[in-house]
Each structure stands twice: as structure tokens, then as C-alpha cells.
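User: What would this chain look like folded?
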Amino acid sequence: MPNQNEILLQQEDKDFSSSINGQNFEEFQNIIRAMFAFGIEDSESKYDPADALAAKIADKINKRKKKVAESKGVDIEDIKVFSNYVSILAVGLKKNINDLMNYTIYQLKTEFKRYQLKINSDIYLKAKLAGAQDLEEVEDWMGDIHP
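Assistant: Here's the prediction, encoded as C-alpha cells.
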């Protein structure tokens, strides 16, 4: 039975239950951050300060977010890159974004590189068929790749 300092998690029609409380909240928070880290945007672009005081507050918020990210060992630039990879692959390959979010970094890099090579190959082929000449050969998209 949960008390007022915890959240009880239960799955319908199952005997599974768990809770989020003071002892496991930080771990839960880290899991949620990891799950949704690809959605992090550039925090500086979110704020459009109306005056000098608002600009000062926005600057403090941005500095704090950077400090927190650094303390957690998170590189915001890497997150943005992989967020773009996931988005591009989801649209370009018509894949479920949730499935792509379960990929490892290596899998994302490999699939993204292969997708780039495939797009380059398709463009090259279309240009050749349209009569383009003096085109540089493109790398075989089905060959070995090293992301």
C-alpha cells in the first residue's frame, strides 16, 4: 500500500507493482532523462528575453542547464546529433521513432551512414539516367561501412 510520499505503479491484469519513492527517485529520473534525451533542444534558442532582466535570467538558466549536463556527463551536442539521426531515419526509412530510440549509438551511426550512402547512390543513378556526365562515382551503399 503506497503512502503519500511515493507513486505506486501497477500494470492492469498483472500481479506487477512497483513504486517511485525517495530511495529510487534519482535512478527513475535518470532513466526518464535517458529515454527522452533525444528531445533536448538547444536551451538558448528556447528563450527570447523581452528586456535586460529577462536576458539575465535566461542566461543564468542556460548556464545552469550546461552545468547540470556536464555534471551528468551528457554532451548536449551529441544528443542533438543523435536526435537528428533518429528523426531523419524515422522519416526517410519510414521507421517507428520508438524503435530507433532503442538502438545503440553504434547501430544509429551505422544505419545513418548506410542511409546516407543509399541516398547518394539514388541521386547519382537518377542524375546518370537524366544524362548527367562527369559525375564522381559514389561509394557502394551495400559495401562495408565503418561509422
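Residues 38-45 have pLDDT under 50 and may be disordered. If you want, I can go into more detail on any region.
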